[in-house]
Amino acid sequence: MVREGDTAAAGGAARPGAPRRRDAQRNRARLVEAASALFDEVGTEAAAMNDIARRAGVGPGTLWRHFPDKETLTAEVVGQSLDDLADLAGELLAAPDQPDALARWVAALVRHITRYRGLATSYAQAARAADGPLGARCQAVERAATELVAHARERGQVRADLTAAELVQLATAVAWAAETAAGPTDPTRLLDLVFDGVRPR
């Protein structure tokens, strides 16, 4: 049986931890916000972890405790957008008469990848190491693509031999091409060419 004094002591011991947890949550949110802002300015590859910590107003040790490497931090920054892509896939599959469902989803994927300069390269690297935090996120994207590709194949909208992995690779390539082009490049035009190539012959 817990005595009243024991309860008070337990409660007193728990209270000091709550502010520390709130501080940790605030620091984590500030780091994610700072990383997103720096990714916007210089891209994911050029953004230095120490610069992210400095912008967030925390020490490097705090950054490394929350995010042991840049891939983990990048996965956190883009996580909600990737979750939104999975949700969009579900909505498109649930809606009747969506002949352009796959094209709409791939266009959304390209918009996501081009959100930050260097993200296409980060995704290509993560896909080769699927056990990492960003690789795990990429696998979720590929699962959504698998359902959409199967849906499109059943309706004769794409080639029977098209795989979800190939489509995601093509979308990543389009994003990379748009990012690295010498002049302004419209990803929509590139996607039109991609879908012209994956339609059944």
Automatic annotation (TrEMBL):
<protein>
    <submittedName>
        <fullName>TetR/AcrR family transcriptional regulator</fullName>
    </submittedName>
</protein>
<dbReference type="Pfam" id="PF00440">
    <property type="entry name" value="TetR_N"/>
</dbReference>
<keyword id="KW-0804">Transcription</keyword>
<keyword id="KW-0238">DNA-binding</keyword>
<dbReference type="GO" id="GO:0000976">
    <property type="term" value="F:transcription cis-regulatory region binding"/>
</dbReference>
<feature type="domain" description="HTH tetR-type">
    <location>
        <begin position="25"/>
        <end position="85"/>
    </location>
</feature>
<dbReference type="InterPro" id="IPR049445">
    <property type="entry name" value="TetR_SbtR-like_C"/>
</dbReference>
<keyword id="KW-0805">Transcription regulation</keyword>
<dbReference type="InterPro" id="IPR050109">
    <property type="entry name" value="HTH-type_TetR-like_transc_reg"/>
</dbReference>
<dbReference type="InterPro" id="IPR001647">
    <property type="entry name" value="HTH_TetR"/>
</dbReference>
<feature type="compositionally biased region" description="Low complexity">
    <location>
        <begin position="7"/>
        <end position="17"/>
    </location>
</feature>
<dbReference type="InterPro" id="IPR009057">
    <property type="entry name" value="Homeodomain-like_sf"/>
</dbReference>
<dbReference type="GO" id="GO:0003700">
    <property type="term" value="F:DNA-binding transcription factor activity"/>
</dbReference>
<dbReference type="Pfam" id="PF21597">
    <property type="entry name" value="TetR_C_43"/>
</dbReference>
<feature type="DNA-binding region" description="H-T-H motif">
    <location>
        <begin position="48"/>
        <end position="67"/>
    </location>
</feature>
<dbReference type="InterPro" id="IPR036271">
    <property type="entry name" value="Tet_transcr_reg_TetR-rel_C_sf"/>
</dbReference>
<feature type="region of interest" description="Disordered">
    <location>
        <begin position="1"/>
        <end position="25"/>
    </location>
</feature>
